[in-house]
Amino acid sequence: MLKILTLVGARPQFIKAAAISRAIKNSFSDKIEEVIVHSGQHYDANMSSVFFEELGLPVPNHIFKLQAQGHSGQTAEILNQLEKVLLNEKPNAFLVYGDTNTTLAGALAASKNHIPLIHVEAGLRSFNKTMPEEINRILTDHCSSLLFCPTKTAVHNLKVEGIDHSAEKCSANTPKVYSCGDIMYDNSLYFSKYVKADVLNKNSLENYLLFTMHRPSNTDEPHRLKSICRMLMCLADKHQKTIAFPVHPRTKKALLTHLNVKELDAFMHHRFVRVMEPVSFTDMIALEKNCEMVITDSGGVQKEAYFFEKPCLILRSETEWVEIVEQGVAAIVDVSEDKLNRSYDLLRSKSLTFPKLFGDGRSAEFICKKIVEEIQ
Ligand code: UD1
Ligand code: UDP
What we know:
binds uridine-5'-diphosphate; binds uridine-diphosphate-N-acetylglucosamine; globular; Rossmann fold; six-stranded parallel beta sheet; 13 strands
């Protein structure tokens, strides 16, 4: 029996981990024992426990409480507490997801304790090192023994950095790289069948655009934050569209901090803006499936827009998910009102196709199979 220590800590990681935990429970329970560690990075009920309850994730075996809010303190505290868990649990391998500070702390802890690191969602690059996630993912990839890439582009990005599939037994020096599709697609397909319309009814949503935002480059830059609020209100007014906005706690704090009373009231109580607390995953799928278009700076939400065949306006200057832009169904608008309006009109007017670019919805099974084969 392989003992795999899985580290999660931020909202998208709970969601990603659900796919692997489900595959272990259904098909690999005689081969893999999973020990779950929750880093404590996200802690509000609607950012954390709601996902454990709704997605059937096992209760974490270890949950950390973090004191620090800043990046360095957060990463250091997780790293420090992880080391003790690793020494006690002695896993055969350590599994991390994505590119958060939790991911980086996990990569460093695994590397320093000589435990093979498995990185799910490896190889993504924005080529923008001012983004905290870019450093986290580069360092994590370079510590990993087994790398699972959601796209061909991700495999290519790794190759360019010298991380190539090795013919030897997998190790940090001789890693194995697999293109396996996107485990978020597994989840979107699986949980689609549990979706209800309650969130739509409760918020009187029809004929609406779905908006999420949480990147520091938008929330922590007052002029960008204000521009985004302004351009969304104009778009909503112009097209008489409701904007459904489940607000991330970082963004809520930023709005309260950076907007003056008049600006805040104008946005939060705008006749077309429906601000709501963060929603559960199945409510989010309901919002995605029924909207006209998605406007976001989230990585996961960009892709889910694609999975549910919705056009997407990306409030960033670049994306890791270049395939959806190349496919012509998503557009990078950054915080340009002109680009937002032009892309909105274009994506509404042309016919869009969404070929399957993110696997077959069975990535988690593939990953578990490879873990069993490669980790001894
Ligand atoms: C983090 C990840 C980001 C990921 C996002 C998913 C890093 C560097 N960033 O960003 O890659 O896309 O999670 O949502 O790891 N807060 C609460 N309650 C919570 C969680 C956060 O109030 O449950 C507030 C805190 O004030 C915190 C702030 O949000 O300081 C930011 O949280 P943090 O986890 O540091 O970064 P995110 O913006 O959530
Ligand atoms: N999500 C959710 N409720 C919300 C907002 C997002 O369940 O109110 C889900 C969303 O469907 C996706 C994931 O959270 O699966 C994306 O997480 P987030 O945008 O926080 O981070 P990112 O993907 O940018 O790292």
